[in-house]
Specification:
Blueprint lengths: L11 H22 L4 H16 L1 E9 L6 E6 L4 H4 L3 E2 L5 H8 L3 E3 L11 H6 L6 E8 L2 E11 L7 H51 L6 H32 L8 E4 H18 L3 E6 L3 E4 L1 H17 L6 E11 L2 E10 L6 H4 L12 H4 L6 H11 L4 E6 L3 E9 L3
Helix pairs in contact: 1-2, 1-6, 2-6, 6-7, 7-12, 8-9, 9-12
The protein binds adenosine-5'-diphosphate (ADP) and magnesium ion.
Magnesium ion binds next to helix 9.
């Protein structure tokens, strides 16, 4: 047993408190290292920060790998959409200073700090009084800043707060790097795995074609298979790249006003023959509106929902698309719904549907797909400040519903 003596002159009860805080940090860092899910991890870091420094709130700001911009990854009392659009300047903000200099900063009173970046307070109607900001360093590289905000009970930040938060920040930075690497490797292996099926089909076809005894009609079949599998590969690689762009924050919208009714008509034209092949009828009921958005990306969304509604339908079923104006919390919006008469989606599968690579186990047998379409769809709708959800009854069909805000 080691005996830890309190330093000469220090108040024993204060020392016991300090020791408890250090024991807690060890416990926390073990928890962080066992968490690979980004969101859960960020939440744990936030909770640990406020707990250890005895503060009201905390935020994590990270340098985006793609763009090098500093953005909020997570903050207590924020809704993700409120802060995700804010780019925090590297010069002219406390977090920017800490990230570029790799040193801690304490601001005991933000009113006397010219570098204080007040856009966040303005956005979420929060009043910052004081801040402790420390660099998040992983393997000699500063990946962002961890901030603890508003010391409780009118106290001031002291040296122990700085030391504790700095220790936590470096543990947290390593955990974040690990979870990023894990996500990437996960994505890579899933992707390569998906590519193997069409590649194997292509390989078999070429082997067959090279046999001199192959009958002429079989030769034709092989070529058709090769054409289909190549198309599938092209589609898959496009989806992979698309999703990778959204996940790394590199995807950007090209907004311009467009007429919704015309876009929907165009999409119906494209999927018409797919429906005809299986006797599925398509209907539409569209209230027109001008949408300020990325036409190409909204088209991608509608095509994915329509092809799903056909693909996961029964023969001779129906698909309908509707668009109507609605209001939500004082903002006008367009609500678009795609309904099918397919097999529906089991309740326990519904919550996973928008996750990448997820396919309802039964469907995998009789249809082809990557399970990326709805993940991309959700990214696009949310980038337009919209929402997407579904209603489905097993055996009866599904409705996918999305909203797009309209100009006021
Ligand atoms: N309209 C629908 N009816 C029933 N199941 C659906 C429907 N749309 C999507 N799904 C299920 O959700 C999964 C994910 O869809 P998606 O992301 O578009 O990928 P993919 O179509 O490539 O499989 C599908 O594999 C299917 O199991
Ligand atoms: Mg799909």
């Amino acid at each position: 047993m080691t005996h830890i003596a309190s330093p000469a002159g220090a108040d024993p009860s204060q020392f016991a408190q300090l020791l408890a805080r250090y024991e807690r940090i060890i416990e926390i860092s073990q928890q962080l290292n066992s968490t690979l899910d980004q969101t859960v991890l960020l939440q744990k870091i936030i909770n640990a920060s406020t707990e250890l420094t005895n503060t009201e709130a905390a935020s994590i700001l990270l340098i985006e790998p793609g763009t090098g911009e500093l953005r909020f990854a997570y903050a207590s009392n924020m809704k993700p959409h409120e802060l995700e659009d804010i780019v925090v300047p590297l010069e002219g903000s406390i977090a920017g200073w800490v990230t570029t200099h790799g040193e801690a900063r304490v601001i005991q009173d933000v009113r006397r700090e010219p570098q204080f970046f007040s856009q966040v307070d303005d956005t979420i109607q929060f009043q910052t009084r004081n801040i402790l900001a420390v660099p998040m360093r992983a393997h000699d590289k500063v990946i962002g800043t961890l901030e603890a905000v508003n010391k409780l009970n009118g106290a001031r930040f002291d040296d122990e707060d700085i030391k504790l938060l700095t220790t936590l920040a470096s543990q947290a930075a390593i955990a974040i790097e690990n979870s990023r690497l894990f996500q990437q490797s996960d994505f890579m292996s899933e992707m390569v795995h998906e590519l193997r099926t069409p590649l194997a089909a292509l390989k078999t076809s070429t082997v067959m074609l090279l046999r001199p005894d192959l009958p002429g009609d079989r030769r034709q079949d092989m070529l058709v298979t090769m054409q289909q599998e190549t198309d599938r590969l092209i589609g898959m690689t496009t989806d992979f790249l698309d999703l990778a762009r959204w996940e790394s924050g590199r995807a950007r919208l090209q907004r311009e006003p467009f007429t919704l009714a015309k876009l929907i008509a165009e999409c119906l034209d494209i999927v018409h023959s797919q429906g005809d092949e299986r006797g599925i009828t398509l209907r539409s009921h569209v209230e027109d509106a001008t949408i300020d958005g990325d036409r190409g990306k909204i088209k991608q969304v509608l095509l994915n929902l329509l092809t799903n509604a056909i693909k996961y339908n029964r023969d001779y079923g129906q698909v309908s698309i509707s668009a109507e104006r609605a209001w939500h919390e004082g903002t006008p919006l367009m609500e678009i719904a795609v309904t099918d008469t397919g097999y529906g989606i089991p309740r326990q599968a519904q919550k996973n549907l928008f996750q990448k690579f997820y396919r309802v186990p039964d469907t995998a047998g009789y249809t082809q797909g990557t399970g990326l379409g709805l993940a991309i769809t959700k990214h696009i709708v949310e980038a337009h400040d919209g929402e997407i959800w579904l209603e489905s009854q097993e055996g009866a069909g599904s409705t996918f519903r999305l909203t797009l805000p309209l100009e006021t």
